[in-house]
Amino acid sequence: MWRARIIVLTADGNGTSAITRAVGKGKTVVWRWQERFMHEGVEGLTRDKPGPRASHHCRLRPSIVSLR
Fold it and tell me: Rounded to an integer, what is the distance from CA 35 to the centroid of its chain?
């Protein structure tokens, strides 16, 4: 799992550039998963958060229903 590899490489003292090369992900992805691990631990690495489309769609639904 590349998410766990980011954390292991971070714990081993690797910098962001080395981690991005090792896992094939961009800096923002590495930073996101490092931050998630700091706040949520291993549990945070095991699940995906819903994307912005999912939350946006849920917010629009009540307004669409009220227009009918």
Answer: 9
Orientation angle between helical segments 16-23 and 27-40, nearest 10 degrees: 100
pTM for this prediction: 0.68
For 7, half-sphere exposure in the C-beta direction (CA atoms, 13 angstrom radius) is 17
> Coil, helix or strand for 68?
coil
What would the pLDDT profile of 42-55 be if each residue is shown by its tens digit? 888 887 766 665 44
- Residue whose token pair is 């992900």: 25
DSSP-derived secondary structure for 12-58? TT--HHHHHHHHT--HHHHHHHHHHHHHHTHHHHSSPPPPHHHHHHH
